[in-house]
Amino acid sequence: MESTNQPAAADAQATAHRQPPLAYDARSELVLHVNGTPYTLTLDHRTTVLDALREHLGLTGAKKGCDHGQCGACTVLVDGRRANSCLLLAVAQDGRRITTIEGLAHGNDGADGERLHPLQEAFLERDALQCGYCTPGQICSAVGVLTEAADGFPSHVTPYTAASGAPMELTPDEIRERMSGNLCRCGAYPRIVEAVGDARDAGGAES
């Protein structure tokens, strides 16, 4: 009876699993419209929007904090909606409009774009920052909050009696709830809430 060398067969199978995969181009060409400018990039499929912005376009306003979508330091606007850029694969955003903190003031003053966005002005007026590391994400998220409330998107604390689809009143509780995904290790939360309230009163949802 022919014997089978099981250890040798197992070693051969393990060796086969260790072989490198067949060579293929794991990159794709895509276009990202960042702060109003189209960029054609060829990126590895694993590249996140955050890394594309920082490493390929030199836009370092969005910060890499936790890199797990938990701190909000990397928040940008994608087609007008806030998103954690560390969780978005760049190849999946082909053709999308991305606005970073660098682009909020762009074009806001017509000719030169030097005028700050109302939320940037409010954060300065209220001194709603300390080290500033989380501030770009805080401001981009706040722009999204103002837009979401104006478009009638409820939050966890929105009263059940609120009219469906109607603009939501941004009370301090609403602002705190909606901004809860953006962490500030310095603890500037009270001033942040005040700054968002100021921009709300000034009609600062424009981006």
Automatic annotation (TrEMBL):
One of its GO terms (molecular function) is metal ion binding. Gene3D superfamilies: 3.10.20.30, [2Fe-2S]-binding domain. The keyword Secreted does not apply. It comes from the Bacteria. InterPro entries: 2Fe-2S-bd, 2Fe-2S-bd_dom_sf, 2Fe-2S_ferredoxin-like_sf, 2Fe-2S_ferredoxin-type, 2Fe2S_fd_BS, Aldehyde_Oxdr_Iron-Sulfur, Beta-grasp_dom_sf. Keywords: 2Fe-2S, Iron, Iron-sulfur, Metal-binding, Oxidoreductase. Residues 1-20 are annotated as: Disordered. Residues 28-104 form the 2Fe-2S ferredoxin-type domain. Pfam families: Fer2, Fer2_2. Pathway: Alkaloid degradation; nicotine degradation. The keyword Iron-sulfur applies. PANTHER family: OXIDOREDUCTASE WITH IRON-SULFUR SUBUNIT, OXIDOREDUCTASE, IRON-SULPHUR BINDING SUBUNIT-RELATED-RELATED. This is 2Fe-2S iron-sulfur cluster binding domain-containing protein.
